[in-house]
Records
---
Amino acid sequence: MIGIECRALTKKFMKGETTITPLDSLDLVIEPGSFLALMGPSGSGKTTLLNLIAGIDRPTSGELLVDGLDIAHLSRSRLARWRAEKVGYIFQLYHLVPVLTAYENVELPLLIHPLSRKERHARVQRALELAGIADRHDHYPRQLSGGQEQRVAIARAIVADPPLLLADEPTGDLDRESSTAILKLLRKLSEDLGKTLLVVTHDIATTDYAQATLHLEKGRLVTEPGEEQRHA
Amino acid sequence: MRGLPFDYATRNLGRSPGRLAGALVGSTLVTLLVIASASFIRGMGASLDPPAGNSNVIFLGAGSEESVERSEIRMQAADVVGTISGLRTRLGQPFISPEVHIGLAVRTDPAVPEGRLTPLRGVRPSAFLVHSEVQITEGRAPVAGANELLVGGLVSGQLGVPDARLGLGEVLHIDGREWRIVGRMRAPRTVIDAEIWIPLTDLQVIAQRDNLSCVIATLVPGEADITDAEILAAQRLDLELAVMTESEYYATLSRFYAPVRAMVLATALLVALGGILGGLNTMVAAFASRVREVGTLQVIGYPRRAIILSFLQESWIISSCGALVAGALGWAVLDGVAVRFSMGAFGLIVDAPVLAIGVGAGLGLGLLGALPPTIHCLRLPVGQALKS
């Protein structure tokens, strides 16, 4: 399990001559093994925070400790290796590789690691079964429904057994029935596998499945002044 | 840390069959052009290189050192050259070849008003001693006064007719008369391969001249050298002779045609540059549609070098296929094809070095065409790439 600690975390960027601050001195502690929903209006900094925690982006200032490691100062190649080992990322639009089958998409993160073909096969099978999509393993993304594609994406996110799962609007492109199934699956993964799970969402239903919900507004957590947020 | 599977690169090729076909055709054409250019330069260079170990000297008219066709020397020169000690002989026959070189219109069909300018060489039988690279492959040498010809291997290309049209017994029309082909000769990779040989006196009659273009003699290395020939030329000022080794003569010709080779090379480079730009355009379009996928791969944990390598694999698969097809086509279609230049011809040479240059250039184009768009594609921050 993995914990996350943000101290005065700030992200700024320039848009034309205007400085945009999607995250503004954010203080936050996420306990290991927790399942949190991160909500807020568009532009409140949800995806920015998720990308910083995933090591996809770098903060302008402040500290970001993931499992005690300050990832903001890792080199690009070390960050890639760290992501391969620690992070599973689930996208709103699944982002499956269209020329690979469901099985091969799920296998993709394992090819980075020195595993035997047999071991890879066992892990991919298990991930597909956990995600409830094993029967579609030889289908290409174009042959799957949105809900099925998201299950494959979830299997891909968990196949390397990363302790941290990050999901950006995982139900944003799904119908209600598929959304519910995906949310149940995410909660099951959190409970059964002990993953730390942070889900960015606009979907209020997500809060029913998460252990806690964080609200961001203008780059800050909506909370009492001066009080550090500690969650789950 | 391992890279992306090779399957990923190969399957991506099938994403857009039209684009794949375009890239394949482009790669093949560019490689083929490089092979054609290299074979042109190599063929022209080889035809202007005298055979290895050549110890021939050429006596020409003073002031005509750069063109044997313009040279005129007296008939008497052949006898004078025979006085050099150290000339090669066989059974008492000295290796001296008095020759007339002239370009004349040769017609395969008398109904055609204009023939094609073709190099003719008037020779005596001793020419076969001096030009040891010449081999009669069919028939025999022509006999004087019988309207007979000996035809080189590239003459068909020169005349623009199938080689079978120049078989033994076939007739060519020169100076309004019929001339029968009695022999075929080969002198691969020399200018002689594009020539028609005719008895010396017959050609003098056609050309209405009673002099020679040159006298070529073979020296015995160690017994005579160019200095002996120069001394002779200097002593016989009345003959107005210039002398040079055959190697020097062809080196002069080679220098004369250097701008042509440079132009061919420049054309090939320009087309190759066009090929690179075309390749860049194709690859930019192919990779631009996958920016989000590249972002995803980076999020999964693939380092940039793994993605670059995979993209280069894709490009190299295409350029390798193009290079192989072009290599096979070049070898099958271009090798030996006669190319007319000035009033002669030479054969394109598609050999191992030419193929290596062509295939190497094709693969290089694959690399140059793919690297910038790959880097461009990866330059985008991952977060932005995911939103692409």
---
Amino acid sequence: MTIDWQHFTPWSSLGGGLLIGLAASMLVLFNGRIAGISGIIGGLLKPQAGEIGWRFAFVLGMLLAPALYGLFAQLPTVEVAALHWQIVIAGLLVGVGTRFGAGCTSGHGVCGISRLSPRSIVATGCFMASGIVTVYLTHHVLSGS
Amino acid sequence: MLNLTALLSGLVFGLGLILGGMTNPSKVIGFLDVAGLWDPSLALVMGGAIAVASVAFAVAGRRVRSLLGSPMQIPTKRDLDPRLIGGSLMFGAGWGLAGFCPGPSLVALAQGLMPALLFVVAMLVGMLGYELWTQFNNSNRGATPRPATGAH
């Protein structure tokens, strides 16, 4: 294993993590809800009374974040190396997978591990492992490097 | 009031994703690429988030209602079923393929990035497909619809 010191951003990543933790804390303490993005979006696709407003507000807040961030600092570059057809397949896999698996990086990875949920710990292990295998296959085996 | 706190939480969440580097798919893939040049940054994003959130969840776990009086809705399921494992494996494959997971893809979409739009549309189609599949299965069995597992 070789560490990529050039791209390693310990302080901003730790700071970003603290903000994410603060956001998840706010949502559970004020609203009594889990800050799981796939679940919040999923609930918007299956409208039930009393479940729309807060979900919509949360997503709106996320969508406003780049504009607010841009007022104080330059937005980090976003590089997407995947081809269009790969992005479509990836989106479908993430959409179906997070609903079947009942969570994603936020719901299982942050909130679930924080409350020591056995399901979330297993789910996080599964999606980390499968993500690592996928990157290994696409970047080292199939690309021939 | 509940909508205002949800809006603020979403805003802070989005700022955290940007600052942490999660909105950049090449950085996410650098984290998952343990066989190549490995960028451990995202482990610090998760570690930092868990350090703060675990305190809040310890407090929340002892309450029946939130500070604003709404019921605490924290998942109680503990069983490991094939859906949880299969779904998570599928999600990880998609995450590794494009470098986007649901939250960062929304933030990148708001930055006006075309690949993020493509990803979000495909993700929504996948989620809708899941809803239709679940409803079809429930009506076929004639069973009452099951509540969403885990409710994340």
